[in-house]
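Researcher: Please translate sequence to structure tokens.
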Amino acid sequence: MVRFPQKFHVKLLKNLSKLLTKSTFVEFYYFENKHFTRKRKLPFQTAVLIILQLLKSSVKTQLKSFYTMLFKVDEVVNWVSDGAFCKARQKIKLQLFINLYKFVVSFFYANVGGKLWLHFRLLSVDGSELNLLSSKKLLRKFGCLHTNSIGTQIPQARVSFLCDALNFITIDAQIDSFRVGEQQMFEFHLNSISKDDLLTAGAIYGHFRILKAIRKGKQIFIFE
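Model: Translation complete:
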């Protein structure tokens, strides 16, 4: 999780809000060109900002909280129903939130800088397995690892994270089927590593193919 000093919170929100109003940016994240083209009570920018609140209660309660905070009037929430919000949410592509997170990370390094170790950004990588909710779509995507005691097939994903260990920031994250190995997922992280980084990882990642790719990019690493 990116940790900002308090004074940068408002600046970050203003930059995010401005970005979400740029047609040249948001037009890539609709499923259809007609989506969000008409003037609505729930435009693209507002729908995204509500989603970024990370719903912790019912949709209706979250909408009331959001609009009350924004407009300081309780009745404003009646402008948007929970059904309208759910429909709007389904029109937005997942890739938007991946790119917004990258924007936040870039904002952190540009405005805060963060801690360094011997002039290096100290990066670490690790992976794990994640049990998912059982559904036909998830089973097709990630595959079935095992069946529980009542006969339900449980899909499982493999996740991998590249983190800034000193600043508690996830630089890059990958998710795929449990059949995809940690080494293969690690190779995708290499696109997020620069010459000013010191990469640390366990010995399991010390495959010749990976070491060759790291040396080709002239990055510094420690595997143990």
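Researcher: Any highlights?
Model: Strands lie at 121-131, 144-147, 153-164, 169-177, 197-201, 220-223.
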